[in-house]
């Protein structure tokens, strides 16, 4: 691992990464010690009195800014996105969350192919260059792992950052080809109702997708935020199913096979299914329901005193546009409508903001998303009542932050 | 480019952006092809049977895709000890969360009552064919694709036998594997959240 200069303002997650990907427990003190040991960036007394640095081939962040994912350091696992460090809606590509099941493969784009076969008139193999010759579309969409929020549900702690609570959602501008463009090329047979999407990683991750999604808004993308996909995001190509759970957006895509029925892969049967009361297990729960989280104020911030504070965060829905975000500062007793700062397109992170005049008393901040289907983000009590305490995946309950009189902010799981 | 042209283009772009963000259509490709695009572009090449066969490895619940060959639980015990036990434990108890418990879960389906209830092949896998498909795709983690068809049948048979789903004297082949009814199958239900569209139902 290359050691990079680390600023004094280094984030907690960065400390975890530097410490070798240990679990994020009781980190503030450790993080502070670690950060204190790193020399601060060299800054001239007056930057207007000395020439600055020359241009560079590749840009880098200010030495005062050092956002970090929180990788677990295994070939199966996650790297959580530092939601608290973002403004606006686009996730910087190098900070997009990552979930991998058998490591990040190194793939030569000149050798990579996409096979489209099964219930088609003519099976076709496309090179990556072939795909780039089709008419392209560019769309902005979030991807959220359906396991996002599991730790905050099962093992909540007051000392959890937005990254630790919900760091498995990210938002990018994607460029690629509608999957129907490719399927039309091959000729879809009438009886095709599902397709298998298979990745070219070391577990050949595969998921079944209904053809209705192909005809709706499914894409095969090769670019993210203006440049080729990052390796951990599926270079050279990935499937993008806007609003569907992250696992289905198969990375390193190598094969599309059309069939009459779902293929019942491991990732849609023994994983990514939701236990329900009555000895039931829900499968094919594809859409990510509406959800939101306040990213500031949040742990480990400390408000310096009463006065005006922006309450800012992101809201998203896998079923459409965010219609409204409500904010409560008193634990859900009363709600006020937040301002929505970004274009209200479907299936994106939408930035919200509410200017809050803190009176210095203990407060409980909450956000509640409403999407254009009318769905209202539920409380944890509502969700648990319907799904049972053993619920798994799709943890979209309201998130809360407790603000103490001294200005410290901590995560509150029970809503 | 004249100044006026620049302004007109900028205005057009602004209007287009406004339509894109407020209108119903994100772009002109509502049928995925522009009005002037051909229906087909004739890119890529027709895949040969050999090219398809090289990657066509999925196995369906009806057994489609299963190769020739067979294996027994006894043979599978040896495969498991050599290729699987180092991560999943000598008795398939696993090292969660990275290496899941495979077998020996409780005989319950009330997973909604407690997330700590181990989900294993016997209580949470609806199709036996998925075992073969997954092992062939992904296992063992450090050398995926290294097991032969015979070894894959054998280790699948071993796991099913340890879960009490098939008897020890079973010889598992394509036909036998597809015929297995898994205990968990009847507990799987389709997503019923779709009805919540337009409503406020929590699901």
Give a structural overview.
The complex is a heterodimer of chains A (415) and B (203). With 415 residues, chain A is an alpha+beta fold. Chain A has helices at 12-18, 27-37, 128-133, 150-154, 162-166, 179-186, 211-216, 380-387, and strands spanning 70-71, 77-80, 98-100, 113-118, 124-127, 137-144, 169-178, 194-199, 206-210, 219-224, 227-228, 238-240, 253-259, 274-276, 280-283, 291-296, 307-316, 322-328, 336-337, 339-340, 350-358, 363-371, 400-403, 409-412. Chain A starts with 11 loop residues before the first helix and ends with a strand. Chain B has a domain at 57-187: Cytochrome Bc1 Complex, Chain D, domain 2 (Orthogonal Bundle). Chain B has a two-stranded antiparallel ribbon. Classes of the chains: A alpha+beta (415), B mainly alpha (203). Strand 5 (124-127) of chain A pairs antiparallel with strand 1 (45-46) of chain B, so a sheet runs across the interface.
Topology:
The complex is a heterodimer of chains A (about 425) and B (about 200).
Chain A: H1 12-18, H2 27-37, E1 70-71, E2 77-80, E3 98-100, E4 113-118, E5 124-127, H3 128-133, E6 137-144, H4 150-154, H5 162-166, E7 169-178, H6 179-186, E8 194-199, E9 206-210, H7 211-216, E10 219-224, E11 227-228, E12 238-240, E13 253-259, E14 274-276, E15 280-283, E16 291-296, E17 307-316, E18 322-328, E19 336-337, E20 339-340, E21 350-358, E22 363-371, H8 380-387, E23 400-403, E24 409-412
Parallel strand pairs in A: 4-13
Antiparallel strand pairs in A: 1-2, 2-3, 4-5, 6-7, 7-10, 8-9, 8-13, 10-11, 10-12, 14-15, 16-17, 17-21, 18-19, 18-22, 20-21, 22-23, 23-24
Chain B: H1 3-22, E1 45-46, H2 49-55, E2 70-71, H3 73-83, H4 85-88, H5 121-124, H6 128-138, H7 149-162, E3 172-173, H8 174-179, E4 188-190
Helix pairs in contact in B: 3-7, 6-7
Query: Sheet bearing the most strands of chain B, described?
Result: 2 strands, antiparallel
CATH superfamily of the largest domain in chain A: Oxidoreductase, molybdopterin-binding domain
CATH level-1 class of the domain at 57-187 in chain B: Mainly Alpha
Classify the fold: give the CATH topology of the domain at 57-187 in chain B: Cytochrome Bc1 Complex, Chain D, domain 2
CATH topology annotation of the largest domain in chain A: Sulfite Oxidase, Chain A, domain 2
For the largest beta-sheet of chain A, the strand count, sense and barrel status come to: 5 strands, mixed
Distance between the termini of chain B: 57 Å
Radius of gyration of chain B: 26 Å
Low-confidence stretches of chain B: 1-7, 14-30
Q: How far apart are the first and last residues' alpha carbons of chain A, in Å?
A: 40 Å
Task: Give the total of beta strands of chain A.
Answer: 24
Order of helices and strands of chain B: HEHEHHHHHEHE
Total helical elements of chain A: 8
CATH architecture of the largest domain in chain A: Alpha-Beta Complex
Residue runs with pLDDT of under 50 for 5 or more positions of chain A: 1-33
- Based on the structure, what is the oligomeric state of the protein chains? heterodimer
**Pair with the most extensive interface?**
A-B, 79 and 67 residues
Helix residue percentage of chain A: 10-25%
Structural class label of chain A: alpha+beta
**Helix run count of chain B:** 8
């Amino acid at each position: 691992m290359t050691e990079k200069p680390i600023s004094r303002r280094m984030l907690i997650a960065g400390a975890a990464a530097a410490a070798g990907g240990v679990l994020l427990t009781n980190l503030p003190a450790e993080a502070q010690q670690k950060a204190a040991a790193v020399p601060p960036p060299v800054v001239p007394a007056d930057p207007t009195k000395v020439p600055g640095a020359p241009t560079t081939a590749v840009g880098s962040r200010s030495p005062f800014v050092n956002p970090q994912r929180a990788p677990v350091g295994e070939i199966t696992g996650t790297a959580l996105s530092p939601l608290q460090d973002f403004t606006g809606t686009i996730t910087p590509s190098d900070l997009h969350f990552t979930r991998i099941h058998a490591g990040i493969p190194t793939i030569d784009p000149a050798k990579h192919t996409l096979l489209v076969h099964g219930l088609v008139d003519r099976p076709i193999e496309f090179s990556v260059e072939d795909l780039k010759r089709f008419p392209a579309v560019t769309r902005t969409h979030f991807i959220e792992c359906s396991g996002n929020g599991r730790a905050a549900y099962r093992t909540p702690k007051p000392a959890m950052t937005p990254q630790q609570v919900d760091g498995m959602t990210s938002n990018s501008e994607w460029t690629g080809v509608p999957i129907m463009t490719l399927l039309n090329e091959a000729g879809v047979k009438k009886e095709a109702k599902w397709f298998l999407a298979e990745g070219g990683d070391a577990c050949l991750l595969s998921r079944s997708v209904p053809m209705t999604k192909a005809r709706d808004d499914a894409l095969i993308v090769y670019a993210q935020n203006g440049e080729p996909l990052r390796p951990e995001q599926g270079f050279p190509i990935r499937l993008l199913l806007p609003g569907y759970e992250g696992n289905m957006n198969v990375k390193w895509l190598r094969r599309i096979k059309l069939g009459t029925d779902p293929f019942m892969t491991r990732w849609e049967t023994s994983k990514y299914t939701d236990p329900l009361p009555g000895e039931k297990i829900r499968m094919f729960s594809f859409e990510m329901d509406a959800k939101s989280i306040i990213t500031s104020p949040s742990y480990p911030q400390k408000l310096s005193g009463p006065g005006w504070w922006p309450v800012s965060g992101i809201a998203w829905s896998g079923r459409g546009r965010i219609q409204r975000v409500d904010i409560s500062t008193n634990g859900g007793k009363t709600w006020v409508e937040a301002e929505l700062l970004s274009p209200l397109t479907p299936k994106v992170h939408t930035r919200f903001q509410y200017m809050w005049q803190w009176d210095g008393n203990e407060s409980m901040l909450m956000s509640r998303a409403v999407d254009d289907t009318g769905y209202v983000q539920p409380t944890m009590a509502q969700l648990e009542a319907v799904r049972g305490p053993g619920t798994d995946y799709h943890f979209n309950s309201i998130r809360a932050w407790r603000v103490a009189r001294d200005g410290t902010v901590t995560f509150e799981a029970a809503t | 480019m004249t100044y006026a042209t620049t302004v007109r283009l900028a205005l057009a772009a602004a209007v287009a952006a406004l339509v894109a963000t407020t209108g119903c259509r994100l772009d002109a490709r509502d049928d995925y092809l522009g009005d002037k695009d051909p229906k087909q572009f004739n890119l890529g090449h027709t895949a040969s049977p050999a090219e398809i066969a090289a990657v066509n490895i999925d196995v369906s619940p009806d057994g489609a895709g299963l190769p020739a060959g067979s294996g027994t639980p006894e043979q599978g015990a040896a495969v498991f000890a050599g290729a699987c036990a180092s991560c999943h434990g000598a008795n398939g108890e696993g090292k969660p969360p990275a290496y899941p418990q495979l077998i020996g879960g409780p005989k319950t389906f009330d997973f909604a009552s407690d997330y700590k209830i181990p989900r294993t092949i016997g209580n949470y896998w609806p199709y036996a064919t998925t075992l073969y498909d997954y092992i062939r795709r992904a296992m063992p983690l450090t050398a995926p694709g290294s097991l032969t068809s015979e070894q894959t049948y054998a280790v699948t048979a071993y796991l099913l036998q340890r879960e009490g789903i098939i008897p020890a004297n079973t010889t598992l082949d394509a036909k036998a594997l597809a015929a297995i009814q898994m205990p968990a199958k009847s507990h799987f239900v389709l997503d019923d959240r779709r009805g919540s569209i337009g409503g406020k139902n929590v699901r």
